[in-house]
């Protein structure tokens, strides 16, 4: 059986006409509206006929489980045949839904849409993380995912299906970990402000319970159970916090045992001997850091409550959802003012804001969350990045390949991605085969390599493919281009011998350097060299292979003078890696480029080439990405340049504006000449003032504004206004053309 549940503000439905002769009789044909309800779209399947009592039991249990999580008291059972192509007989389905309605009515107010009728309906989804859930279960037991089917075939190491299991990721409690590192005064100020906030919450809302208090970047947060707050509540909380600050209350460490609330007890249990108690009446907190607070509340000179979000207790979606209040605090008001100004600068640079202003991309609710659409101007930026990436690779032995967007599920069972991505996989049901929307490109590239007979003389083999992959990320994590479900990776895979790893890594590092130097993002970066930890049992491959690969990466890092840090125990299970961490114009750090050695996939796919002894030898695979996700990278460079792109990246490089209609013919000549040389140029010949046209072009942040009036038309010259600098008059058209062509060719930043 398959169900899709919607926690709804309301649903309206009305029976229109019978879908088949056996449709339910005596139904209410008037429009019905149920508010504040859990709508359960349901499809009874052919396989359920084998044991309908067990299926009914699972159906009831799943509905009760979801209803308890969203605190619903009204249930709407809605027969929905579109959930399955293997439906049971109508009589069995109708009987099961009627019996479910009767059983659920003992605990809930239950409505049921008529069975076997075409119906119109209108529903308003609440939009929180649990508002849309789908589940599939059979007589063997339930499996559960968010928006993904999960009753699947598992696999052995040989990828042969052996048993029915669940793809649902097993969410477990993440234990709290004590951080013994000393804190800065700014960090202590942040945490102290959080405790002051916790005190205010307990005083205003005594029924609440305080969860974890911790740092996140340059901010801090306080998690609270049993409360619903909105941003409009923040000013009131700030007023009460200010009173406590002025009261100059001490943060006291307690040495005698004290009664803890349940959440604090769990924190203390996780921390063990590192659990210490601090008191700010009426609350007692178990902090996650050593000496985390200031001496008194008065030391918090300035603070700001930033926003409200949510988080699951111990990062486990099976646990209660807590309200999270994020804040920032400083020892001086000047530091707070500076921070808030930087936040405003970040908002002005937001790729969401600039994307709307410059018509770069579209977010469509009809298409779906996490599936942005690139408009023509955004597509130009994307294509220019890909073009540059290929230019950096095409003379270094790389070959372009193409792979389809789906593949049989067996491919991912062989590669291990079936287990790795779990319920993030998008599944496609074919007529005879089951397919997956590809979550990674690597397995496809393995198949290309495996289809040819390579010898040691052919090695290395290098593939290049910017390709889109798909992962069903949680809806609450999706934003603009930064976090999406359709992810375009500038993927590259190299198949080489162990002895060739160092040289190949050096070549990739040179590409990374040139790419980010051109973009002006190489001024401040560092590299993480992730290697094995002490426990060698969890890593695939022999000690010799690991030692050679780790040495190869470190040698390349040293020879290329990379500012690297060796990080023990942070390697992937399949091999060591180099991750490149870059900072953007706002000082934010991003992991963008990566170089990863892989011993796993060659083994899983039994890859080989013939060596000098005419024996099969297994290659090493190197995964490499330069920009990472192109969507995320676009969001970064939009904000990096604040929409003022260098000429080679600009969607509109030149804007021509006319003074009068008399100047249009020459303006069109200029436009035609520039277009002949592939300059992206637009002509504004509207009957508007020159001042308005200039302002519009400046707001569009075009690189060059070319003005043509009577004087320019007569002399066949142009007036050029660069984005930065003074207007230049009487400029030769050919001189201007040569200058911008050189600027584009050299990819200069101005």
Structure characterization notes:
The strands form 9 sheets. Strands 19-23-24-31-28-27-25-26 form an 8-stranded mixed beta sheet. Strands 1, 2, 3, 4, 5, 6 and 7 form a 7-stranded mixed beta sheet that branches. A 5-stranded mixed beta sheet has the order 33-32-34-35-36, sandwiched between helices. With 750 residues, it is α+β, with helices and mostly antiparallel strands.
What are the SSEs and their pairings?
Layout: E1 2-18, E2 32-43, H1 52-70, E3 74-79, H2 90-104, E4 109-112, E5 117-125, E6 132-138, E7 141-145, E8 151-155, E9 161-166, H3 185-204, E10 209-216, E11 219-225, H4 234-246, E12 252-254, H5 262-271, E13 277-280, E14 283-285, E15 302-312, E16 321-330, H6 333-348, H7 351-357, E17 361-362, E18 373-374, H8 376-393, E19 398-400, E20 406-408, H9 409-415, H10 417-421, E21 426-429, E22 434-437, H11 442-450, E23 461-470, E24 486-496, H12 501-518, E25 525-531, H13 543-559, E26 564-568, E27 577-583, E28 589-598, H14 600-604, E29 609-610, E30 616-617, E31 620-629, H15 630-640, E32 654-658, H16 664-676, E33 681-684, H17 690-699, E34 704-708, H18 710-715, E35 717-722, E36 728-732, H19 733-745
Parallel strand pairs: 2-3, 3-4, 19-23, 25-26, 32-33, 32-34
Antiparallel strand pairs: 1-2, 1-5, 1-6, 6-7, 8-9, 10-11, 11-16, 12-13, 13-14, 15-16, 17-18, 20-22, 21-22, 23-24, 24-31, 25-27, 27-28, 28-31, 29-30, 34-35, 35-36
Helix pairs in contact: 1-2, 3-4, 7-15, 12-13
